[in-house]
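A quick aside before the break. I want you to see a complete sequence-to-structure record at least once, exactly as it would be stored in a machine-readable document. Don't worry about memorizing anything.
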Amino acid sequence: MENKFKKKVTFLLAIIFFLLTIFILSFVLDPAMQINRAFAWLEPSLINLADKIEIHGIHGRTILQRRNNVWYFLAELDDHFRELPLKQIRVEELFRALSFSQPYAYQANSAEAGIRLGLTENTASRIIIYGGTGLPLLDLLIGTADIFAREIYFRRSGRNEIYRGEDLLTIFTDSPTAFWLDLRLFPFEPSGPIYFGSAAHLPLGIGMDQVQQAEIVLPDGDGSFALFRMGNVWLISGEEGGIADPVIVETWLRSVLSAEGDDISFNTQFEIEGSITLWLGDNSIRSIQVGSMGEGNYRVASTGENNLAYLLSELTVERLFRESEFFTHYF
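That is the input. The structure line, written in tokens, reads:
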């Protein structure tokens, strides 16, 4: 009787050991079931195939489109789209975050868990990368943060496997339109095709040494004057004219040539209240024209570089539209 009992116990233990071995092997050999493994959501080799990006986040849908190797922001206006200048570095940063291999912890594998962690298509943020065939190279759902708010949950569309990892992506899904737009009043021209990780698109801007004359018409009828270059000397026109401090003039010119708006405005029809006009050595002209103070203490501005208008904060306007005395304050 005792031997029979021992045989049953040995048999049961053998079965338990066998099932435990099968479970451990399935856990180790199934990549989806590994607790931590490093991988990238997007293979780097696919980046140059991408020609469209859709981002669904707290501000709605963002669409980025590549044309002639340059990325543009597509603004939805009534029944059509309009291409707006895009900060190319933003696309590179997004691709870098998606193609960066880092450890992720396997979290769950069920539709119920997806609902609980905010990973349904109706609740999650989403990043979709399209290739030339129109099929997604990546369709990634981004859910809620963990209890420590340091990591977030991810799921590929069409799959149930849920992972938890460092948050590198909500900056792209939660940022407003201005985050993406190139809001420089004098945007640089690309010097070559734009490829991920390439320096081929280093900008070509306007050099300060090209500016020969500047005229400032202060907003709200507060007067006007001009700056003239005479060799290495800058002169100020007007009754209170004189010699300007060249360091101050160059610092001011740098702020004008690198000025950025706070957002894009589609109101291109406005009454001009002030202007800054630059005459360059090649006889070309660059200008900034601003309207009156509007809602939110912004002024609409245009440059003639494109058919866009920009919103300038009062702080930016005050920094650009200096009175003549400013240029004679020696350091």
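Two observations worth writing down. Residues 37-179 form a domain with the Immunoglobulin-like fold (CATH 2.60.40). The first helix runs from residue 2 to 29. We'll return to this after the break.
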